[in-house]
Amino acid sequence: MNRSTRPHRVAVLIRTGFIPFELGIPHRIFGIARDAEHRPLYEVVTCTPGGPGLVRSDSDVLVQVEHGPEALETADTVVVTASHTPGPDGAEEELTPELAAALARIRPGARLMSICTGAFVLAAAGLLDGRPATTHWLESDRFRQLYPRVALDPDVLYTDDGDVLTSAGVASGVDLCLHVLRRDHGAAVAQEVARRTVVPPHRDGGQAQYIRRPVSIERVFEREAERADAAGGRVASTAAARSWALDRLDEPLTLSDLARHAAMSVRTFTRRFRDETGESPAQWLTRQRVEHARTLLETTELPVEQVARRCGFGTAQSLRAHVQAVLGVTPSAYRRTFHRAA
């Protein structure tokens, strides 16, 4: 069977310390895709840089891999998964010689994909230079430090730059594979696979909605900082004003209100606030209100209009605009995903 008529060949590259769930994603999503005559659209194989044999995962699961790096030479798509062992996405920063040699066997024109911190491998090989990419939000700072030439976007679930695609943390590999399926064969095929897998064919938003920044924790640290400043006689902090504001998010707070509570001029308060938080007072206040809205959407049945008033946004329209801008989804969509019944 020639390349134009045989199923698209996908090679999933795993290493010691791989995550079993990530290995299963491309096998499940691509493996069950069928055309109108129920013929397989993809052939999915697993390979490892070290050659055939047992490969230990990050748990007590061992997998017998039948293919070595030679499988990469005939792959139309190569999927690189994460690994919790030394290497670019583990404790070390460089590609091992074995992994570098394996990647060198990928044929020109093959499509490259990564799941989670598998993006570190592609970046270490120079395959993401100048391209958009994403990875797990917990590793985004380290990724930026190691690979400043990559256009990292830590907020999205996946990136698509044509022949190079990356996904965020773990389960977003499902989103990426379904996206590729839609791109290759249309929405109907992707929807059927999603239906059989019992996952949404498309998830709204990005990683921002999964990052928890507890307001209460921030308040604790700020109050500790306030006490330390008072005891040590250091330069006045904006911590007291921030703690005061957190108890009054439902009120129409102004910059003058915050500065007055801190006993500073507006100019001094604004400068010191940015030095201490890295944000302007308006940015910080909006973020705290969005965080409070998340808590109310998750834990209450309050209508969106009441959530908006309790968070200080005033109207449901304002709440929707701010939540959409920060989290990438509407308040209603966020509630459907994260609401916890009392």
UniProtKB/TrEMBL annotation:
Pfam families, alphabetized: DJ-1_PfpI (PF01965), HTH_18 (PF12833)
GO molecular function, one term: sequence-specific DNA binding
Residues in HTH araC/xylS-type domain copies: 239-337
Statement: the UniProt record of this protein carries the keyword Magnesium: no
Secretion signal span: none
Superkingdom of this protein's organism: Bacteria
Record's keyword terms, sorted: DNA-binding, Transcription, Transcription regulation
Keyword presence, Transcription: yes
SMART domains for this protein: HTH_ARAC
Stored Gene3D superfamilies: 3.40.50.880, Homeodomain-like (1.10.10.60)
Name recorded for this polypeptide: Transcriptional regulator, AraC family with amidase-like domain
Source species: Promicromonospora thailandica
